[in-house]
């Protein structure tokens, strides 16, 4: 099934230009054809194409279904952007496919990348949402200083900081994660979090965790952390 994305489909009854072009020019849909449209907020609409315009295809809504996330709790990932941007783009795609509520690039003391284009990551997330047949798109935040992010998630009941400092006490995430509880996990840059950042996070209620014995790259660690939550959630449900 091919899904189109139109965040304001209910009010505009029109596909955005990029999706209009894909619908009309690439897939050659014509008036009367039925298409599926998601709004990124958890809704999928069955629509009939009325006007096959390549810049603003017009539709009417003939059906609607709610498709909330299949996971029971919010999962927020804060991660220091990788030096090579393509790895951060890959991570955004894979986190969206697996399932995540928000992705926040973190500006840390030892970050290798100090800026990032959020718009590009948002487009990748939308594409991954459509391809994985979801109706909810994760929120992609601008790059955020470490302390500001830690302060912003103080209300999350479950907070973890994954780091590699063997001199600091850690436990396996898989042993500590409790299912069905809103969770935030932060992953540092290739040079890891600084000792001061680890201490500040622990003081703010974060629990220091390990993701296992393997040495993981930043983007791999973020993916493993997110998937660990999903696996435990699914084991708990079944």
Please describe the structure with a list of short key phrases separated by commas or semicolons.
about 240 residues, alpha/beta, 8-stranded parallel sheet, elongated
The count of helical stretches stands at: 8
| End-to-end separation | 28 Å
**General shape:** elongated
What is the C-alpha radius of gyration, as a whole number of Å?
20 Å
Proportion of residues in extended strands: 15-25%
> Sheet bearing the most strands, described?
8 strands, parallel
Order of helices and strands: EHHEEEEHEHEEHEEHEHEH
Average pLDDT figure: 94
Please state the structural category.
Answer: alpha/beta
Give the tally of β-strands. 12
Could you name the ranges where pLDDT drops below 50 across 5 or more consecutive residues?
none
Binned, the helix content reads 25-40%
